[in-house]
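ok so I'm stuck.
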Amino acid sequence: MIEKATSPRWTKLGIAALVSLALLLIDLQIPQGVVVGAAYVVVLFIVVGTRVPRDLVVAAIALSVLIWIGGAFSPRSHAEEGVILANRTLSMLIVCLVAWLKIRRLKLVAQLEGHQVELEATLRESTEHEQRFRQIVESVTNGMIMIDRSGRITLVNAEAERQFQYSRHELIGQPIEVLIPQRYRSEHPAQRDSFFVDPSVRAMGRGRELFALRRDGSEFPVEIGLNPVRIQDELFVLSSIVDITERRDAQQKIEAMNAELLSKNEEMQQFVYTVSHDLKSPLVTLEGFAGLLREELSDGNLDEALHCAERIERSTGRMGQLISDVLELSRVGLVRNDPEPINVSDLVADVCLDLKERLDGVGMSVNIQPDMPPLVADRIRLGQVFENLIGNAVKYGSSAPQPSLTVSGMQRNSEIVYRVADNGEGIPPQYHEQILRPFERLDSDVEGTGIGLAIVSRFVGLNGGRVDVDSAPGRGTAILLHFPLSLLARPTSQPNRHCDTARKDP
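replied:
not stuck anymore, here's the structure
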């Protein structure tokens, strides 16, 4: 950059002018003027300190004129004239050359200074852009991690620190594979190289589930967006990372709810069909025997009329039982009592006392495990569950020569399992799921509506458990109730009470 005129500049020019005049006076007194001719060059070096090219041009012209005047008017002999001319010519050439070199240097310096200013401005602008870029990355709510071509981490924002449980100082310089589960690490470098070959904004792993690795070794599902970023002619990849754990859990819940709704819809359709069929059958019977009753009474056949009345009574009783069971099934899950700690062994013993007459009627011995795991549940509903199971054992398990019933329970892995088993004929495996559905009965000659096991299955399911059937022809039937371990109650100190009148050695 060329300087403007200042006081030091005029001082130098004034000194140069005075020295030049002094040299001219001396030059005019010296015969040959060889030394004085060369001394004019020294004056130019006084002016060289200036940074104004115009001053150098003026000085070079003025000194050249003085050199020529000194050579033309200084005393000399004819023999010396050629030497003096050569000296003066060489002096003028040197003055002009020095002036030209200085002017050239000033222009180069000005260009370099201009480039330096531009470079400083570019660097300053680049630094401002980088700071603004980092501020934007830091303010993003997604996790942001940037890597270079070798896969080394160069940038981490606060959200990524929270997601992966690392500080950014621990991650900077580390390979990105430290955040990838072990089973995916071997294939990742090739995927990274392919991205650098064709960099573009896109989602990572389209159509695949992606997982990231926290510092503690736990994994979490993620969605990752890849963005190529060029900084000072070097290519980087900026990854946007979203933890989709909550979204995935919500999606799974929605899918589970949809599956449950579909199952309920199918169950409702089967329920409506079965109820309409089972209700229609007693109505048809009632209608038929009502007509027969009218005819028999008209003819005076009292015995036949009495028989028709008995059939009508049985049909109305069956219809009443069916309606009662349907209402009971519909109440499961809607009418709830507060859950409480239950001594299951005592509860089963009380149920056995209520069913004592039926148990004794078929000669069934009962064995109740005295230390079954206690459960936190609805006492009334759980009592109904065991009442249905024991009632089914009386109906279907009394065909054995010495019918017996065993009720036991245990804590296994992450669940509580209760087992109600009889030694009856057993059920073929292909019917195990069928008997848990409403109104499904394998033996139509046995009284009942087929609601009991459906009520059991629904209650256990509402408490987070499931019902299994373990049975085969000739080896009895066992119904297993699986409850989550979270429903385990603290052991009670109350003594177990068993139905001694019904309990016999198996």
